[in-house]
Every structure is written in C-alpha cells, then in structure tokens.
Design brief:
By secondary structure, the chain is of the alpha/beta class. 27% of the residues lie in helices and 10% in strands. The chain has a six-stranded mixed beta sheet, sandwiched between helices. Helix 2 (51-61) crosses helix 3 (72-84) and helix 5 (126-139) crosses helix 10 (301-307). The chain is elongated and about 80 Å long.
C-alpha cells in the first residue's frame, strides 16, 4: 500500500520512480500495489480538485488497485476514457490485472474462494493470550529505575502492606489497546475481553496486600494514605491515523496532574501508555521508576510480569525519545543529537545495573 506522504516533494501516489522503477523493476516485486483510502485524490492541490489527473498520474506511476470508498463510477469512467484515448496504455492495465490475479491464484482464492470456518472459541484462546502476554513483557522498556543508580524501585514487592494504583489508564482496557481495536479510533472502557493493568496487579500481589485504586487522587489522598508505593498508569487517549496528529506530543492533562500529585509524595513507578514517545522530562525528577509500555493491548499481566520481577525487563527503545518537541525531528547521527533517552536505550533488571546502550548524552537523563 502506498503512503499518503511525499518523497522529495512528490506525492507517493504519483511517484513512478519509487513504485515502478525501484519496487517493481529493481527489487522485482511481483505482487500488486494498492492505493490508500482516497489516496489518489490527494495528488492534486487542493485534494480532489483534478480527479482525472489523479487517476492518470497514479495508474501510470504503477498503482495497480485503487481504493475508492465512495464514487467508484466516476473512477471507472475516468480510467476507461484515459485508456481509450491512449493516455494510459493497455499494457499498463494488463500488468495491473496480471499482478492482482497472480496474487489471488497464489493465495488459492480460485480453488477455495471462502476461508475455512474457525470456531469462535478458538479466537482469543489461552495459548493466544499467553503469546500476547509474552510480547507485552518483552516490549516494555525500563527508562528509569530509582532516583539514583544505587536505589532501584523495581522490581516491586508483592507483599507490601498497602499500595496505590492511580491514573486514567490503570483500569481501562480500551486505553490499553489504543486505536484500531474493535473500532477505527478505539474507545474507552471494556471495549473487548482482556485484563487491565489494575486487574493484573490485584492478581499478582499477595492476598494480604491492600490495593487501593483511585483514578485521580489529590495530594492529600496520596500523602495520607500510608502507601508503601504507587503505580501510576497514564498516557494518551486512543487514536488512529490523522486523529493522532499532535504538535505537542503530551499525555493528558489529567495524567500530568496525577503524576504530580502522587509522585511528589509517594515512591512511584509511572507506566506510560502511548503509541510513541511523549513529553516526560518535566516530571522525571519526581518519578522513581519510568516504564514505556506502548500499547499493551488486552494482556495487562505482561506489565505486571516485569514490574514485579517474575521476568526481567529486556526491551529497548525502537526510536529516540526526545526531550522537547522543539528538537524534532531528532535522529541518531544528527549533529546536535541530545535526546532524553537515545535510540536503543533500555535498563534491565535481574542483571548488573548497567546501561544497554553505549553511552548517555547528559547526566540529567538519569533522573
């Protein structure tokens, strides 16, 4: 599928060099290329302003199948006219048809046009959830563990007398899963079947531990509760595609307030639920331990597996974690590469306390 984006100022849906010359010819790609949703419409500026040109340019660029969600009659009429008048050559159409049919024959769709029926009970069975849980615990990245390197907070004690669980994402399955879950933009609450992080915590600690859940505690509640430690789970609301576009890349204001109220008074581990790095540097000094959990989905036990020490943290950052959005774009090799956490960073538990990347850029990144 072709991206909505541009390369060197040219819309990817119109990029003959990358689609045909590089992908199909040089790399010998034998499959077919499909547009994104209304992707060809955005070749023109403004979008949709010259549909005939969009059809002409996209097909000649090498797109074989076009995703037309609404006015397919208009697309068919334009394409037919362009072929009949010679603006699009018949061999370009033949190539597209050959590629599409080739994939369908390879997939066996002409022999078995319908998929085998699968009992509903198989979906989400125990073995599937166990694998998903493993994926969660292996992908979590430990960004900070203790106010200094010699006083780690993690792993947490399972036998603490009383603990606080706080945050908008602690007991919200929809928030854990993010967008493209059940619905396009995802949702809040019990949008599917699974285990929230709060539920996983209560199932992990000892029966004698009192677990108190308060989504948005104030300072007095946190300070006067007699808590051994707190687990704060906050992050971004669910989103998909352009609904996730952001110029500030922050967690919710409620999440910020919860971090400040809780972590200023109680030893805390903050678990960030997000689809990308977000702003955390302003709050880092008061946070004892920080975990990037990304979007763990339905298996909240994958989070508790590592924060309580049943398994070691082993995840590493798949991209640079910035200090401020003003630094972006920020990539390894940049002349002024000064991240909060560099690409590939990740602390580990259960081994000698050392960084898992070559070096850190500034000492302030540790605390």
């Amino acid at each position: 599928m072709v991206s909505y984006s541009s390369f060197n100022g040219e819309k990817m849906h119109a990029n003959h060099f990358l689609i045909t010359r590089m992908l199909k010819t040089h790399l010998k790609f034998k499959g077919f290329v499909i547009s994104d949703w209304q992707g060809i419409d955005k070749i023109s500026t403004p979008p949709f302003s010259n549909y005939t040109y969009s059809v002409l340019t996209s097909i000649n660029a090498g797109i074989d199948m076009v995703m037309v969600p609404y006015d397919y009659v208009n697309f068919i009429n334009n394409l037919t006219t362009l072929v009949k008048t010679g603006y699009i050559q018949q061999n370009r159409i033949d190539d597209a048809v050959k590629r599409i049919l080739g994939v369908k024959f390879t997939a066996g769709l002409f022999d078995l046009p319908f998929s085998n029926s699968v009992p509903g009970s198989v979906l989400g069975e125990a073995s599937h959830r166990s694998l998903a849980r493993e994926a969660v615990r292996k992908s979590l990245v430990l960004l900070k563990n203790g106010k200094d390197l010699h006083s780690p907070l993690l792993p947490l004690s399972k036998t603490a007398p009383k603990i606080l669980v706080a945050g908008s994402h602690a007991n919200n399955l929809g928030y854990q899963a993010g967008g493209w879950t059940i619905t396009w933009q995802g949702g809040s609450g019990n949008t599917t079947i699974g285990t929230t992080i709060f539920q996983a915590i209560t199932g992990t600690v000892s029966a004698s531990t009192q677990v108190v859940y308060e989504e948005s505690p104030d300072v007095n509640f946190a300070k006067g509760g007699g808590f051994s430690y707190a687990i704060v789970v906050v992050g971004e609301p669910p989103y998909a595609e352009t609904f996730g576009d952001s110029t500030n890349l922050t967690i919710t204001s409620q999440g910020v307030q919860t971090i400040e109220n809780v972590c200023s008074t109680v030893k805390c581990v903050v678990v960030i639920i997000s689809g990308r790095p977000v702003v955390v540097e302003p709050y880092l000094p008061i946070i004892d331990a920080l975990v990037a959990a990304w979007l763990p989905g339905t298996e909240g036990q994958g989070v508790t597996d590592v924060i309580f020490g049943d398994y070691n943290f082993e995840g590493k950052l798949p991209r640079t974690w910035f200090r401020t959005v003003e630094q972006l774009p920020l990539n390894v090799g940049d002349k002024h590469y000064d991240p909060l956490f560099p690409y590939g960073f990740g602390l580990r538990t259960g081994v000698s306390r050392r960084l898992t990347t070559a070096k850190f850029t500034r000492s302030s990144s540790f605390h």
